[in-house]
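Morning F.,

Quick status update on the modeling queue. The single chain you submitted on Monday has been processed. Sequence for confirmation:
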Amino acid sequence: MKNKSDEKLFQKLDEFVVEVPDFPMEKSWMERAANWLFDSVRLPEVEFTERGMALLLFLPVLISAISGIPFIFL
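Structure tokens below.
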């Protein structure tokens, strides 16, 4: 059931010669492990409110102050 447009297409396709290189179809275990390890990961998007951002900025100061308390009693 070839029509005229199919024949033109096959004629055009026959004009081109493509050499397909030989490559392994199955990846080695090392390639699979490397692909798994170095695969890009989308970072989760975190939205902070004003209160949450203030707490996040104040948290390192608070942790530093609390961790310095034992040195007062030395």
